[in-house]
Amino acid sequence: MSSSGVKVLIVGAGIAGLTLAIFLERAGIQYFILERVFEFKPLGSSMVLSPQVLRVFDQLGILPELEKVSGVCVSGVYMSHKQNVLGRIDVSFLEERYGYPNRVFSRPDIMDVLLRFIPKEKILWGKRVLSLLQNHEGAMVRCADGTTIHSDIVVGADGAYSAIRQALYDSIKKKNIRLPDSDMSPLRFDQFSILGVTERVDHLYPFPGEGCKMYNIFPSNPDQVYVHTIPYDDGRIAWRLSGPCLSKYLNGEASFRCSDWDTESIDDLKKYLNDAPAYIIGTHTKVISRIMVEDKFYETWYHGRTVLVGDGANQSILDSICLANLIVELPTTHPDDIEQMFSTYYSVRAPQARKAVAGSKTLGRIISADTPVGSVMRNMVLKLLSGPLNVKSMDGMYSGRPLLNYLPPIPLKGSLPNTAKPVTFGIGAEAKRSRATVV
């Protein structure tokens, strides 16, 4: 649909990269995905997609396929280490208010669905990026296998501490442009987690009815693990363990591998798994994954012909919706037009991303408090979020439910009005607005 004939190179075949690829595929934009591994690895545990992003999958016609491999989340339950309930955050009202519920997925399941909607020849496996060159004429990525790929735009969708981010920073520093100190500070990996999915265990552990509930079990002291579990409809449990006691799993390569998924045996963890459902986790999971991340807002999102999308599932999909809408409107591949496009993208998405990171950090500090005073504050916050403040906070997150401007719009679902406005490049914006009204 773009008159520019733009060619896009997406680096990273995770949720962000695959979603953007589907958006570009529907728009008829030329693209390829580079992925460093040689084949898809079914790693990871659970993730939740919000009403904000489910709407665009409904517009694409993909939602029925996603519904087949997901469950509806109705609440989050927070418990003490003795499994006494400290608070419940109800989310059962989301579908009535925003048109869609929170849906819980196994990461391998959602990846499998997304891969079905991308032509196989568009994903180049085993392409580890070594360097990035960009100039007035275009961009070139060089891979470890000796190949080079040319494009007009490079999109880094390969994690918080990605190869493209580092290559982008290198190109900026070569021009003697100072990067913000916060962007250059090392990641602290204070959210190191170990996670996995059990075999079917509903015959061993009673599953609650009336929809999926997320269970969060706080440790009795800092030497124990925080346990997060989500029962699936098919009898499996998705789980995540986190806590300072797991820091020994960090290694000297951490600063270069923080966005990688790694696998190992469950055996070394069994000493931490004293309670049910933690015991069931340990005895009925064959392979686990580990991931090292930190909630961090980066000020630098683009330079030249290279742009980055976020790392978290929902934020990265919202980034991709905005970016795809702008790429479709790109009039030419001239650097000035690309600069204007990236600037618009940043102005729309950065404030929302900054707010999301700040909120996540604040909630994380409160929820994971391990002092007596912190525990009291945590219980107070949980009580507040169990009441009317819950709906108000959800409205702040889910009132804006964007669509792809270049596809036929779908009717608005849910009782709350939509606050999302069409994001346009600027050139021909009035004509675009006339046919891409907010619905």
TrEMBL record:
Transmembrane segments: 6-24
Domain FAD-binding: 6-175
Keyword line: FAD, Flavoprotein, Membrane, Oxidoreductase, Transmembrane, Transmembrane helix
SUPFAM superfamilies documented for this protein: FAD/NAD(P)-binding domain
Species whose genome carries this gene: Actinomortierella ambigua
Signal peptide range in chain numbering: none
The protein's name: FAD-binding domain-containing protein
Similarity annotation: Belongs to the paxM FAD-dependent monooxygenase family.
A single GO molecular function term of this UniProt record: FAD binding
